[in-house]
Please model this.
Amino acid sequence: MEQRSTKNVQNFNKPKIELHLHLDGAIKPETILYFAKKREIKLPADTAEGLSNYIGYEEPLDLTQFLARFDYYMPTIAGDREAVKRIAYELVEMKANEGIIYFEARYCPHYMANCDVDPIPWNQKPGDLSPDEVVHLVNMGFKEGEKDFKVKVRSILCCMRHMPEWSAEILRLCKKYRNEGVVGIDLAGDELIGADVHSGHGEAYTEAFNCGIHRTVHVGEVGPALLVKEAVDDLKAERIGHGYHTIDDPTIYNDLLKQNIHFETCPMSSYLTGACDPDFTKHPIIRFMKDRANYSLNTDDPLIFKSTINTDYAIASKYFGFTEEEFKRVNINAAKSSFLPAKEKEELLCTLYDAYGMVESTEF
Model:
């Protein structure tokens, strides 16, 4: 058995897992420029660097301002068959270059289809894609990327809090494509839009639970711990997207620890969206680490945050005091909490154990 390191590591160059990644927040600027030209859409910059600087930002904004960033570039992608498939394929290549061996990417099929439904700001005309076609195209892009770049990829379909009328169809698509790469359902969007932020989505989540579709929820990012408890109790969430504010309520937090609920944490994202104290030395992830909680490190929306997974790992090393042992532990947590079927999950874990030089799977 390998001797565990107690020193902080600057670079973790071993295989990694990523569970919280938005497909529409991880597009190459060059690809946005290409489709803007093809579709004759005017952008404020005509170089990849200029566009990256326009879309991305480096100082904290609030969550609402962050969400508005998508409006800058999604008109170039949404509703275009070639674009939807291409961004899926290119994401696999990007993640392969970052040392990721398995990731789950999430997206809302209706947004990618450019559905003619308010309040999408770029709906000048109905898109010519259906949400069903979007899922099919993304699956195709991921499968081709898997073959070319030797990375395992699965996807999660997002319900949107402000559009509960979409959730039934999103659940249907989860069922239809569950054997073609779709492994779960998510609830995303502004969690402070109303008194009951889960309203309208309970039926879809109940059916997901009943038919064995895995469930995660964006919650506790800027909202209170009580919303996290509701997501677990009412929506049967197995994983929590972000969840930083659970530590504000010790009773709820300790209950989540006992249930081994997985937190999909995103360090750079939490800083730039204003979700947490801008002082990284006070970040909730430090508490998760000390309590040996079940959590992972993820990028969230690397296009907008001008980041890679290495950005988040560098933050964990510099400010959170991560050792090599902790980097290994969070990746094993991620593999165990992935939405893969049991056999594939075990194969993924074996790959990590071998790469990490671990003899016993019970080491962590």
The radius of gyration is 19 Å.
